[in-house]
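hey m, so remember when u said the tokens were messed up on ur end? i reran from scratch. heres the input so u can diff it against urs
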Amino acid sequence: MHINIIEEAKKNHDTVVSWRRALHQIPELGIELPQTVAFVAGKLAEMGIPYEVYEDCSCVAATIGKGGKCILLRGDMDALPVKEESGLPFASTTALSHACGHDFHAAALLGAAKILKEHEAELPGTVKLIFQSGEEVFKGAAGAISHGLMENPHVDAAFATHVFAANPLKNVLYGKYFCASVYGFRIRVQGKGAHGSSPENGVDPLTVGAYILLGLQELIAREISACDEAALTIGHFEGGNAPNVIPDSAILEGTLRAFKPEIRAYIMQRITEIAESIAKAYRATVTVEELSSCPSVICDDGMMAMLENAVAELDNGMTLVPGIHLMGSEDFACYAERVPAVICFLGAGVEDQSKWVGQHNPKIIFNEDVLENEVALYVKMAIDFLEKNK
């Protein structure tokens, strides 16, 4: 295919920015994104791109091209329960905001769709687009896959981008062991309530929960090698509502991050064993419930090489930054465990570095100039994969 991708991306830049700002003002959470879905579906319909809405998980799947190999391009589009304090004229006015930049991904994927649709007759294969919900809660990718996203036609590879505000504009960050797996869990401790003056008549779930919390920290410190990267955090511990009452129950919630599947499985087993053993010792009972689960993101060597080549050939000032290796998690892993895939971070820092803050911060500001390269990379990776595998 003979197409000047950068020029096409530049031509559509203002339109993509307007889409991003529109999405920015309608942030929605999890796997219920009715306004976002309506916006994306409306734009796809205007472009004449066939699509399907997975209603129960608020994902939009679209297809461009026909026959041949198929590459999946993902753009997540869910927001966060963070009240925006950016001061931008188009800032969210609700208690929710796009503090992770998913509005960029959805807008950029629409921009790529526009270019790819205009050159559909030249495509040597098929491009699937998934405008995905629920990345923040690790439910969107699994929901889309359960609807048959990876088939009809069969997906052969996958690519995604993610903007990163605290990094210089035009950096492209990537790595083989990109993100850790996640296991979110809730431990319910059932004790026996009593008056604070008569603790012998009760079973204190707060004491049991405290020992469970300490026991889980020892799990990382004494049972897992420092070479086997793992992080275990209890971020929520709740029980009782009066200073002179021993409550009936308490709740601990946390997350486990790990790279090796065998380490993840071992720690998951030990979380339950430790909680049950401690509870039994102090006359309480526990149940352990899974809140979220997602494997680690391991990028394919061939797809990483294709990304490197794409950045070089686009020649638009981008700088490759290899070796990214994060304890955070990404449900793009659900695609990457099924087909060769790669995901990259795109530096989106504004010119004034004093305004740089990390993802999920209420004051976060992204540089909209990143959209030009984000759109271009979606298009370039799709075309290069199909050309190589036609």
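this time it looks ok to me. The CA atoms of residues 169 and 347 lie 5 Å apart. if urs says something different then somethings off w ur setup not the seq
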